[in-house]
Amino acid sequence: MSIEEQEIEKFNSVAIEKELQRSYLEYAMSVIVGRALPDVRDGLKPVHRRAIFAMRELGVVYNRPYVKSARIVGDIIGKYHPHGDAAAYDTIVRMAQDFSMRYPLVDGQGNFGSLDGDSPAAMRYTEARMTRIDREIVVDLDKDTVDFVPNYDNSLTEPTVMPIKFPNLLVNGSSGIAVGMATNIPPHNLSEVINGILALIDDPNIEIRDLMGLVSGPDFPTGGLICGRAGIREAYETGKGIINLRGRVDLEKHQDGKQAIIITEIPYQQNKAQLVERIASLVKEKRVEAISEVRDESDRHGLRIVVELKRDEDPDVVINQLYTLTPLQKSFGIIFLAIVNNRPEILNFKELLEHFFDHRKTVVYRRTSFELQKAEEREHILLGLSIAVQNIDDVVAIIRRSENPAVAKTALIERFSFSEIQAQTILDMRLQRLTGLEIQKILDEHQQVLLEIKRLKEILADEHLIIDIVRDECLEIKNEYGDARRTEIIDAVDEILPEDLIPHEDMVITITHSGYIKRNSASLYRAQHRGGKGVTGIKSADEDFVSKLYVASTHDTFLFFTNTGRVYWRKVYELPESGRVSRGRAIVNFLQLAGDEKVAAILPISSFDNAENNRSILMVTKNGIVKKTSLDEFVRPIKAGKRAVTFKEGDEIVTAHLLNGNDTVLLVSRKGMSIHFSENDIRVMGRQAAGVIGMRLAEGDEVVGAVVVTSGNPVLIVTENGFGKKSSILDYSDQSRGGKGKFAIKTSDRNGDIIGVTQVGDNQEIILISDSGKMIRINVASIRETGRTTQGVRLINLADGEKVVDFDAVASEDDDGEEDDEI
Length: 823
What we know:
Helix 8 (190-202) crosses helix 13 (349-390), helix 14 (392-401) packs antiparallel against helix 15 and helix 15 (405-416) crosses helix 16 (420-428). The chain contains 18 helices and 41 strands. By secondary structure, the chain is α+β, with helices and mostly antiparallel strands.
C-alpha cells in the first residue's frame, strides 16, 4: 500500500449533505442559544449579560464615577465575549438609550444617539456606568445563587444567568433574529408586571384573561397609543400577535384662526427625522394639501412636531391622513420567543411569569442555603471561642507552655476537642478579645447566629416561606422602581369587544335564601301606588325565598362579600339572566364558596382607579364591628376569592359600602337603635385586619344595616311587617364611634323588627320584596317624612305570616303617589 493510500485511510467517508446538515444545525443552535435570543429567566442575551457582569466586576456601579466606554468594551471582549468591539459597544449604547429601553440598564454620559437616528459618538468619547436598577440584576451574585461556567479561554468564570429580582424579559423587552426564528418582545410597565406576578403567586391557576386585568398591555418608552386590545389578547394567549401603534397628537388654535397639529409622542422604534421628512414629502407632492408648514421643535424637554394647517381646514381629516400615509401609525409584531432550558420556545404571557417565578424561588433557595452554610461555619468558630473564653485560664496556660504554635494547636485540640479551624482561630485571637466586654460580644453573637441558623432552616424546610420572600422582594422592587404607564391603550375604530355588545342598563339582582342568583332589567318592575299588592318577582320554591336584592349597571364590577369575611369579583353582565318568576342559577356555579359560606353583601364598583380619590370600603358585621380598607387592596381579582376581614367566631358581615374619604356612617340595629359617626373615626386597615367597634349592642340585638351619608337626603328605615319611616338625616345627630347610640324608630309587634336602612331622594323609588317572592315599587315622594319616635307608615300589604325580607332604591318612574297614613 502506497503512502498516499495510507493517508486516505485516516479519514472517514461522509456524505456531503449529511455533513452540511450537521454543521448547519450546530451553527444555528450556536446563534440561537449563544447570541440572538434572550434567556426566559433574566431576559438577557449573552452579550447583555456579559456587559453587565463586566461593569460589575470593573466596579462602575451607579454611585461611582463614570469610566470610558472603551474601557468597558475592552473588558467585555477581552474577558467574556469573543466577538467584535462594535457589537459590544452597540449593546452598551442601546442599553443606555431611554427611548429604546423602558428602564435603561446603562447610565451613559455623552452622545449615545437620538430619536432622529443620529449615530452615537465613538466609544473613546463617551462614558458609562451601571444604573441603579442594575443592582437588582446582580444582587446576591456572590452567594451561589446561579451557576458559573468558564469563559471562552478558561481563564475566568461568568454566570450562566443573573439572579435578577424583576422580570426583565417583559419589563424591557427584547428583539433578535436567529436562524429560522425571531423574537420581538415589547417592553411593559414594571408595576403592572409585578402585579401580575403577585396575582400568580396568590392564585397559580389564574387565567390569562384575569392577568390582563392587571397588565393591560405593552408600555413603550416613547409613549404613544395602542389601538385595540385584540392583538394584545392574542399575543398573551398564544405567544404571537400584532398590535397597532399610533403617535399622540394634540390641537392648538392660534390667534389668526389657524390650527396646528402637535405631535408629542411617536410610535416605538420610529425615526423622528424620517417621520418629519415623510410629512414634508406628502405636502410637496400635494397628496396632503391642508398643511402649510411642518417643523420640528423638539428639545431637551420633550418631543414636539408642529404641523401647521391652512385656514378653515378640518384637523380630523389631516390627522387621519397622517395616520394612514406616514409612520405616525405602524404595526408591531409580538413574538414571545425565549430560551427555556437551552431550547427556544414560544410562550404565552402566563408561562413567561411562571418561568420568572420559578427562577426567583430557585435563587432564594440557593441564597438561603449559602447563608445557612456561612452561618453554620461562623457558629462553629463562635462555639470554639465561647468554650475558650469560658476556660480562658486553661487556654492561656496551654499556649504558654507550648514550644510553638503547632504544639499549642495540638494541645488545644486534645484538651477541648476543638477542630483545627477552631484551634487556629483561638490562636489568632487578639488579647483585646479577652476583656469582659469582648467576651460578652462573642457569647451574644453566638446566640444570634444560632437564631439565624434556625430561621434559615425553617425557610429551607417550607416552600411557603420561600414564596413569601419572593412576594416581599417583588413588592420592594415595585415600590422602589415602579412608575406610571406611558403608553395609552384605546379601543380600535374597527374593533368590537364583547363588552361593547352589552348595553349599559340598570339591572335588578336577586339572591334567594338557598343560594340562587339572577338578574333582570329594572324596567320589568313597573311603578305602583304605595300600599298596592305588587307583582311576582320570583316564584318561590319550597322552603326558599328571596333574601337579597341589588340594583346596578351591567358594566359594574361586583364585589361579593360573604358572611365568612371573603370577597369575590364578577361583572354584572356575567351573572345569569332569567325570567321574572325564575329563581336563577345556583351561586356556587360562579363563586368558589365553602359549604357554610353565603353571600352577605354585593358592592358595585364602576372603576378601581383610586389614584386621586383615596376611596375605601367599609365592612360592617352584625356584632357592630366596622372596618375600613383602601380600595387598592381589592384591585387584583382572585378567582378563589380573598380574605376581606377577620372576626371572632359567631360574627359575620351584614353589609359593605364604598367610602369617598370624608363621609359619615349611620348604623342601625334590629331593635331600633342607631349611631351616626364620621368615617375618619375609623383608621384604614389591611384586608386581614379585624376592625374596630362601631356600635355597642344590647343583648339579643344585632346590626342589620348601615348608610354612608353622602348628601342631605332623608333616611328610610323598613321593618319586617311592611312599614317604613322616612326621616331627615338631621334627626341623627353626630356621635362618637363605639357608643350605644340612640333610638332610630319605635319598634312594636305591629311594625316588627328593622330589616334595613338606606338614604333616599324624592326622585327615587323603593322596591320591596317579601319572603313569598311578592315585589312592589313605590315612589319615595309618596312617603311623608315623620319624627324619630313614630312607627312609620305602611308600605305594602302582607298576607298573614308574610314578612318583608329586603328592599332597595331605584331610579324613579313617573307615577302619581297617594297620601300615606301615619301611625
